[in-house]
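STRUCTURE:
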């Protein structure tokens, strides 16, 4: 029952948040914008899948040391830690249902979660630039 309730709540939450379009290198990516403590806490918890070309962008009020984990997250993800200028400063792959911390190597303004392997399959690497980022994190 807990998993079902979490999935229903997450589905409603995911579709109620604002969406935006980013360009990751030359690749378009539609993301949910998580810019509040509550939306950042939920992240992609309880999602059963994540479509190709879809993700979540965590927006922070300014550059800070950021760590992510996979508590109650059922799908494998990749994360990119993005500086204020839109350049990827760090990346990591994350295993479902783990509490291992994945931390940015320096203060960042954004974290972008996508399906694991999406970055690699689209040629996105450290130093790649993300465009279309909200001004809030800059």
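SEQUENCE:
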């Amino acid at each position: 029952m807990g998993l079902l309730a979490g999935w229903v709540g997450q589905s409603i939450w995911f579709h109620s948040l604002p969406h935006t379009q980013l360009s990751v290198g030359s690749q378009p990516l539609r993301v949910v914008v998580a810019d509040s403590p509550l939306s950042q806490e939920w992240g992609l918890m309880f999602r059963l899948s994540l479509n190709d070309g879809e993700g979540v962008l965590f927006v922070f009020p300014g550059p800070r040391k950021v760590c992510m984990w996979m508590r109650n997250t059922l799908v494998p993800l990749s994360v990119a830690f993005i500086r204020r200028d839109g350049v990827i400063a760090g990346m990591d792959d994350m295993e479902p249902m783990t509490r291992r911390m994945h931390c940015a190597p320096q203060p960042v303004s954004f974290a972008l979660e996508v399906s694991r392997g999406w970055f690699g399959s689209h040629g996105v690497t450290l130093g790649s630039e993300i465009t279309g980022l909200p001004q809030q994190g800059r």
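REMARK: The chain has one domain: 2-137.
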